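ligand=adenosine-5'-triphosphate
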Amino acid sequence: MNSRDRMSVKSKIAPITLKERMTALRNLPAFFKLVWHTSPWLTVINSLLRIARSALPLAILYVGKLIIDQVVLLSTDKSHTSHEYLWELVAIEFGLAILSDVLSRGITLLDTLLGDLFANETSVKIMQHAATLDLDQFEDAIFYDKLERARQQTVGRTILLSQVLSQVQDLITMGFLAAGLMVFNPWLILLLLVAVVPAFLGEAYFNDKSYVLTRGQTSERRELDYLRYLGASDETAKEVKLFDLSGFFIERFKNLSDKFYIDNRKLATSRSVWGSVFAMIGSAGYYAAYVVIIGKAITGSLSIGDLTFLAGSFRQMRSLLEGVLTRFTSVSQGAIYLRDLFEFFEIKPRITQAAHPRPFPNPIREGFVFENVGFRYTHSNQWANRHLNFTLHAGEKLALVGENGAGKTTLVKLLARLYDPTEGRILLDGYDLREYDLAALRMNTGIIFQDYLRFQMTVAQNIAVGNIVEKENRELIISSAEQSLADPLAQRLPGKYDQMLGRRFSQGVELSGGEWQKIALARAYMREAQLLILDEPTAALDARAEYEVFQRFADLTKGKSAVLISHRFSTVRMADRILVLEKGMLLEIGSHETLLQLNGRYAELFHLQAMGYR
Ligand SMILES: Nc1ncnc2c1ncn2[C@@H]1O[C@H](COP(=O)(O)OP(=O)(O)OP(=O)(O)O)[C@@H](O)[C@H]1O
């Protein structure tokens, strides 16, 4: 089962409790540490601007009150004739309004810049961390969902950033306004809370529901993306057309997306209905307070300026409080998503470096010894390799033969430490492979898989990936290409080694399967590896090319150990010894002649293939 097949595996989702929500908020300091690392300057300036901006609403309201009181005074009391103070006040309010606008725009700009930088940095961190993880972790559906959520949420995190900052800003603004209200009527604040709390609880409830829904849909959303890719991509178009699959994919897509739509609609509708009810309660609270303030203004215990100031403060407080409470749920929501991100960063690779690693032997003296090696893939109850006991001698060319699924690829992945054995051990020159320096082991292993990557990059880059530090070493790239028979091909291309390959980018040239293989094979010659592994990378080569490739391979790897996997016996027989695998176990091992004499499975398969050519 590969990762795509496992898309339909659903993660179990439990509802989120308030406690979990509060616990999730503990992720915020770590989040801000990340933000701070992104850009200390932008973070500081942004915070300062927000603090300045938070004092302005109260100031504007207060100056507004003074203006109205002054106007009332000038129009009722004829002994006051100088308008100077009034115009000063108007000028101040004008200045404050402009300042408020400028600050708001500055804050938005900084939020955007900081958010972009943060999203980029997080993406890089995710890629860097993913690179440290084990292959089998990528093959695990639950891990894959976590990675997916961490990746998708990078943009969401930038929203969280401005939300948390706005939250702090609004709280300070409210502090100012509350101080103003307290001076006049402290109980107004109580009324305010009563008006707003139902809306907050409603928001919290619906946010929980929406998080649970979205989280529960992660696997299926991945399938939706996959179907979208299958239905409209250059790589799939050929088979989709020939097998007339578009209807099949579209139907699956529709079924899934309709299901999402129905679930989301249900939630959105009840959210909107309840939202209206809570908003009405809020308005009722506001108008109750308004009536009281108006009453006091009529009796003269409040001035007209006080009336506008209080009504304005109350209105702003209400919308701020509502905003803060609503935002609290989405902040804690975001903090829960943040947990996904941090959980992803907490996943540790199991294939690790020994505390005091041994240097890799150069040259290898004895070779690799498999001692009762067995391997079982995570979540699989079958052994892919079992009871393997054999030696790959230094300088030996060993071919692996066996039917599909016999465990050949798994065996070479164990050699390269892409996996560690589930039981038994592999020794290299007498020491467990796990004791060696991991980077040195990888550097000394040149491995080309049957499903090698076709990079949509230039010919030179496609070869250089075999040893990326040498990407500028044109001489090495060309000599590697010569060894894998890719040089004549590169010379024929219009851009030679700088020719873009693949169709994804403009001026890209598509190659045939065999031509791609020659390019990929060149990667094996890019490094001075002591162990070379070719896992069927020649299957698409024509018979002559494959023969030549292996002739050269034998010459070029003189003195080096090599493992070849091939279903072509003409190739296999060139190896020093052949290991026959069946159901993950070693069935026969020996030279071509020995195995023919043995007249066992190898002989049977060999004659079967030879018969086809007669
Ligand atoms: N990532 C994986 N997760 C779970 N099981 C796997 C995985 N890869 C391979 N297997 C299983 O392990 C067994 C051995 O697979 P392996 O790829 O080693 O066979 P192979 O001999 O290389 O086959 P082929 O000739 O088809 O390439 C198979 O039964 C296969 O289904």
